[in-house]
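Per reviewer request, we include the raw input and output of the structure prediction for the construct analysed in the revised manuscript.
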Amino acid sequence: MGRLAAASLVGTAIEFFDFYVYGTAAALVLGPLFFPTFSPVAGTLAAFGTFAVGFLSRPIGSAVFGHVGDRYGRRPVLFVSLLLTGFATVAVGFVPTYDSIGIAAPLLLLVLRFLQGLGLGGEWGGAVLLTAEHAPERRRALWSSFPQMGPSIGFLLANGVVLALTAGLSDAEFRSWGWRVPFWAAGLLAAAGLALRSSLAESPQFEAMTAAGKTANAPVREVFRDHWRTVLLTAGGLSVGYAVFYAVSTWSLSYGTKQLGVPSAVMLTCVMGAVAVKGMLTPFVAMLGDRFGRRTMCLTGCTASALWMFPMVALLSTARPWLMFLGFLGSSLAFITVFSVVAAYLPELYEPRVRCTGAAVGYNLAGVLGGALTPIVATAVSEGRSGPPWGVAAYLTVVALVSLGCFALLPETLPGRAVATAGAKPEPEPA
């Protein structure tokens, strides 16, 4: 389990490095480089628009790779998804700017961002299921939380590289070529991840289903026919995590540097500190999910998010590093209370024959609802206004309350209790 969890963590961290480095670049430099004819606010919105495309393609990727995972095995998903995301990320680093090739530059960004999201949409389901289906029942949330640490590590790697570059290069050098370095580095990371995953064994549950002839012929169709309600409720429930995380990691970075005048290095350090604490606490919070229940932790995290959004915005508006860090930390802890257990929770909500598709589609659809829209909405309601951006706090609070309602309609799946989905009764898992 240790070797498997490590391989899942490293691979997920690499894929999220690829995904997050784009968000940081969108907040800092992509607007003027690829949308120079726009006003500063419009350029930022346009850059966040290309950022959102990656979320829109993630559910498509989860359906495509979910079909592969449920039909042919979890293991192949890990290789193809990592290869696709790594290729798209490296290619972004070679795209000429608007000044060189005109409108083709932002169009290429859109295509490559779409491919990034497509690969990441498959990554989560494959990595999580391979870990969860190997894990002992009573420690499933704990072992499944290791892939959930991957996003934190990927974020720290992405922003650590950007922070080092902004500190070591002049502003002109960073805008000229420095911003491309993290994208180029993705190629080396992807190669390392593929090598690490080459020796992983297939899920024993999938092998048992294959031997029994119980694999799904059309898992996407089965999911939307028999489990559509569970997909929608999990997507709505997980939206709060995406909304809070990208408000902290993407929108606040743009808002702090452009409207509060805080140096980008200071903003990155504050955000990275909060994410580092979140990553370290993930397995410990997941252990609470093995003790008290997955649904209980999700309800707790949603409630904490709803209560913390206005204090977070107030602390951000002070432009004081320690107070901003405190605001980001509270948000991150509320977020991880939910996301530390979902890698065990979502697979348990679905029949084994379709869980790669169902869990991945619900997880990545939440990214569209919470992650894709949040930087755009938050920028639109905060740019050009004096005083704290209370509209952002109100928006995030509403998202948290909606997520709370969705989780309230889902069942508990802690081993030892009755398991029943919101749409269909699961089949017994193969021995």
